[in-house]
Specification:
This protein is mainly alpha-helical. The protein has helices at 5-17, 22-34, 36-55, 57-76, 82-92, 98-118, 122-138, 148-154, 160-188, 195-221, 223-241, 249-258, 263-278. The structure holds zinc ion.
Length: 287
């Protein structure tokens, strides 16, 4: 096989990408030894390919990550035990949208910064931010319609519920730890240490409840609706808590229950979660 100048030029991109047959490769290589123009062009293609690889390492990593998950899932199907579940959890870390991790950390860092700068009404800021940030992140953990890695993971034999629960555990756990860290920072800065528990009790219950609502709404109506509903509910809660709104005693009491961590908020959050996960839409419904 022998290629002329024009035929070689047509093959240069494929040559750089490594998709030619052995015979075609040899023919292109033979022409490159004789033709400086083509040799220069081939070098350009090679550098473009290198740049693309550098710019998009995920594209190269992802198939590897996914094949790992598939291998784990294949062995995990028969019996679930703690190490297998732990691996499933870890396997979801690179697949959950990266923005969730950074956005939560950023907003809460900002919250702590503002709080410490104000040195007044500090705790209120964290108590307002932490549940909202968690709920918004959770609205995005399960949206196959615009999440390629999730779409592929769902095509595997692992139960979609298990994937959902793994992601929920990760994102909620992450936000919980962030909230705990921020509470500790605030408490260390001027308040007594006991304030950590007090602070925690103020945001944990609302965080559970708002996250459960956000997840349920996002599973049924999509991520955007999940965020919209969480933000709206939270806005109403903030408005009603402010002194500007007149409330009767019964409303004040129910609001106080919803605004703290207690049996009612935890059980209600668990019930919403059960219903949401139990009624998980089939994949076909997203198509
Ligand atoms: Zn040539």
């Amino acid at each position: 096989m022998k290629l002329d100048h024009a035929e070689t030029r047509e093959q240069l991109a494929a040559f750089a990408a490594g998709t030619l047959s052995a015979e075609e490769r040899a023919a292109v290589a033979a022409h490159l030894r004789e033709c400086a123009v083509c040799a220069r062009e081939a070098a350009e293609w090679a550098s473009i390919r290198g740049a693309v690889r550098q710019a998009a390492p995920e594209a190269i990593l992802r198939p590897h990550v996914l094949s790992n998950i598939h291998a784990r899932i294949a062995t995990a199907e028969t019996h679930f035990n703690a190490p297998v579940l732990w691996q499933l959890l870890l396997a979801q870390v690179p697949l959950v949208r990266r923005q969730i991790w950074t956005a939560s950390a950023l907003v809460l860092t900002l919250g702590v910064g503002v709080t410490l700068a104000l040195r007044y009404g500090a705790d209120a800021f964290l108590v307002l931010l932490a549940p909202l940030v968690a709920a918004i992140g959770i609205a995005f953990i399960y949206s196959p319609e615009n999440d390629a890695p999730l779409e592929i993971t769902l095509a595997t034999p692992t139960s979609p519920r298990l994937i959902l629960l793994a992601r929920l555990t990760l994102v909620f756990g992450y936000n919980f730890l962030l909230g705990l860290l921020c509470s500790t920072l605030i408490a260390l800065n001027g308040h007594a240490m006991v304030a950590v528990q007090l602070l925690l009790m103020q945001w944990l219950g609302p965080m559970l409840l708002l996250s459960a609502i956000s997840l349920a709404a996002s599973l049924r109506l999509g991520s955007t609706a999940g965020v919209g509903i969480a933000v709206t509910l939270w806005g109403v809660r903030v408005m009603m808590t402010s002194s500007a709104v007149q409330l009767n005693l019964a409303m004040q009491q129910s609001l106080a229950v919803l605004n703290s961590t207690n049996v009612f908020t935890v059980v209600l959050a668990a019930l919403i979660l059960l219903v949401a996960v139990g009624w998980l839409p089939n994949q076909e419904q997203f198509a």
